[in-house]
Design goal:
Layout lengths: L1 H6 L1 H11 L22 H8 L4 E2 L5 E3 L6 E3 L3 E5 L2 E6 L2 E5 L3 H5 L10 E3 L2 E5 L3 E4 L10 H4 L3 E6 L5 E5 L2 E2 L2 E2 L6 E6 L9 E5 L4 E5 L3
Antiparallel strand pairs: 1-2, 2-3, 4-5, 5-6, 6-16, 7-8, 8-9, 9-13, 10-11, 10-14, 11-12, 14-15, 15-16
């Protein structure tokens, strides 16, 4: 039961944030124009870039800590010297000097690349794997076994990372673009499709609709 509750935590967080959209903003305030695109001033952008910007649940841009923390809902475009983050409709794109640093922009509570509760798909420079299902209670194993994770190189065939609760690490083709797909039979995954481009340090993640 605890894992089932943790699995839906991303949805609860999204609802809480959505209810606060009238209060969230940049420093000093967000500038939300009629098409729901947040247009940062140079001053706002400089402050956010200096405050460890990160992508949270539902693609919300978060920055700062404590009393100085803030957040901006999609859509937005942030341009920092060594980081760019855009959110357009259901797609979040992060550019950074390396793929590893781009992946690190997604906050832990964003449930990015999570396939069930706190079990995650893991990406290294040369491999995609997933947390084993050994810790899942017997009563929930059937649900976990219905989750499928695949990795597909650009122009290639899909390779299975997780199916039926069995994890099979997949080696990535050096420098090639790969797409990770997480499919479930139950609650939609918050980030069902993620494309990795190591050559440009780009992560493009699609949100569940």
């Amino acid at each position: 039961m605890k894992r089932r509750q943790r699995r839906s935590a991303w949805m609860q967080a999204a609802v809480a944030v959505a209810g606060a959209f009238g209060l969230v903003g940049c420093v000093p305030t967000s500038s939300v124009i009629p098409n729901d695109f947040t247009d940062f001033s140079d001053a706002q952008q400089a402050v956010i870039c200096a405050a460890s910007p990160r992508v949270g649940a539902m693609g919300i841009l978060e920055y700062g800590t404590g009393a100085a923390a803030g957040s901006v809902p999609p859509d937005y475009a942030l341009n920092c010297p060594d980081l760019r983050v855009t959110a357009e409709r259901w797609t979040v794109t992060v550019w950074a000097p390396t793929l590893t640093s781009a992946l690190a922009v997604f906050a832990p509570d964003a449930d990015f690349l999570t396939y069930y509760a706190d079990l995650r798909v893991r990406v290294t420079e040369g491999q995609v794997t997933a947390d084993p299902t050994d810790s899942v209670p017997e009563a929930l194993l059937d649900e976990v076994r219905r989750v499928t994770v695949t990795v597909t190189p650009l122009g290639g065939a899909a390779q299975t990372v997780l199916r039926g609760g069995v994890v099979t690490p997949v080696t990535l083709e050096p420098g090639a673009t790969h797409r990770i797909d997480i499919r479930t039979d139950g609650t939609p995954n918050p980030w069902p499709s993620v494309t990795l481009d190591p050559a440009s340090g780009t992560v493009q993640a699609h949100l569940a609709r």
